[in-house]
């Protein structure tokens, strides 16, 4: 097993090359019996039922931003990871790590957003956990959500289906969420109003797979690292090159 460095850097959590190395060389060899593909969700078979399981943690600052908040983001992120893996999202867990002194009004606002977003996505918050840590041990609130979903029989998605000649489709403009967070965090005065495109896409994806299941080979919800990280993962997994034309990218 390869030792990366003496300390973990912020870049190790940024979704790029260093994060891939951290997972592939340090984490996975120590905790998995075999190193899995870095998919958005793992498939688990229980008798005749094929389930997909995923988990994600959310530490965004600011907690509230145009278009959403950390609560909405936590539900959408996990729901979308299941959906792009070909599953119908069913239920989520919700774990909160709250810093001592965190405003109760902000917590209630976040929880209301979680409930509303889960209701719209037609998923249940089935279980959860809450921890309160001393002041300074967390940055306000951290959220972890895990989700399970039922595999759609028509969906066959994965790196193994990608082949030369395939086309990459992007369903929206790039960078909306990241730029919104950065502008709020840095208090940038921009002429154009920015808003996060954070949303649950399970209904849209379900319709897509019903109509075009044979043509859709792979999907990914590009979060940290964005398009660059996703295309690099595809190249590493498939051994194919990817050509991106900058002028065609919707920004």
Written description of the protein model:
With 251 residues, the protein is α+β, with helices and mostly antiparallel strands. The protein has 6 helices and 7 strands. The chain folds into 2 domains: 1-36, no CATH class; 39-248, 60s Ribosomal Protein L30, Chain: A. Helix content is 32%, strand content 21%. Helix 2 runs parallel beside helix 3 (104-121). The longest helix has 18 residues, at 104-121. The radius of gyration is 19 Å and the shape is globular.
CATH architecture of the largest domain: 2-Layer Sandwich
Give the percentage of residues in beta strands: 15-25%
Counting DSSP E segments of at least 2 residues, the number of strands comes to: 7
CATH superfamily of the largest domain, by name, is PurM-like, N-terminal domain
Spell the H/E element sequence: HEEEEHEHEEHHH
Judged by helices, strands and strand pairing, the structural class is alpha+beta
Please describe the biggest sheet, giving its number of strands, its sense, and whether it closes into a barrel.
5 strands, mixed
CATH fold-level assignment of the largest domain: 60s Ribosomal Protein L30, Chain: A
Distance between the termini: 40 Å
Average predicted local confidence, pLDDT = 90
Number of helices: 6
CATH class of the largest domain: Alpha Beta
Reconstruct the topology from this structure.
Blueprint: H1 17-31, E1 42-46, E2 49-58, E3 64-65, E4 68-69, H2 70-83, E5 87-99, H3 104-121, E6 124-133, E7 141-151, H4 176-185, H5 202-212, H6 226-238
Parallel strand pairs: 5-6
Antiparallel strand pairs: 1-2, 2-7, 3-4, 5-7
């Amino acid at each position: 097993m390869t030792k990366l460095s003496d300390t973990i850097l912020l870049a190790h959590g940024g979704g790029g090359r260093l994060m891939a190395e951290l997972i592939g060389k340090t984490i996975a060899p120590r905790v998995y019996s075999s190193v899995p593909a870095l998919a958005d969700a793992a498939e688990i078979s229980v008798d005749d039922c094929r389930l997909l399981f995923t988990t994600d943690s959310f530490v965004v600052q600011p907690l509230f931003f145009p278009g959403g908040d950390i609560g909405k983001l936590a539900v959408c992120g996990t729901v979308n990871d299941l959906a792009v893996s070909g599953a119908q999202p069913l239920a989520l867990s919700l774990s909160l790590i709250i810093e001592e002194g965190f405003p109760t009004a902000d917590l209630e606002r976040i929880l209301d957003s979680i409930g509303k977003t889960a209701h719209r996505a037609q998923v249940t918050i089935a279980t959860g956990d809450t921890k309160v840590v001393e002041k300074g041990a967390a940055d306000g609130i951290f959220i972890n959500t895990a989700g399970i979903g039922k595999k759609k029989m028509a969906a066959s998605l994965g790196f193994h289906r990608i082949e030369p000649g395939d086309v990459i489709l992007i369903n929206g403009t790039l960078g909306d969420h990241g730029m919104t967070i950065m502008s709020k965090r840095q208090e940038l005065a921009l002429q154009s109003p920015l808003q996060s495109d954070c949303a649950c896409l399970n209904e849209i994806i379900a319709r897509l797979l019903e109509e075009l299941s044979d043509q859709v080979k792979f999907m990914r919800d590009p979060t940290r690292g964005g398009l660059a990280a996703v295309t690099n993962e595809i190249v590493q997994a498939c051994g194919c090159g990817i050509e991106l034309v900058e002028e065609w990218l919707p920004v």
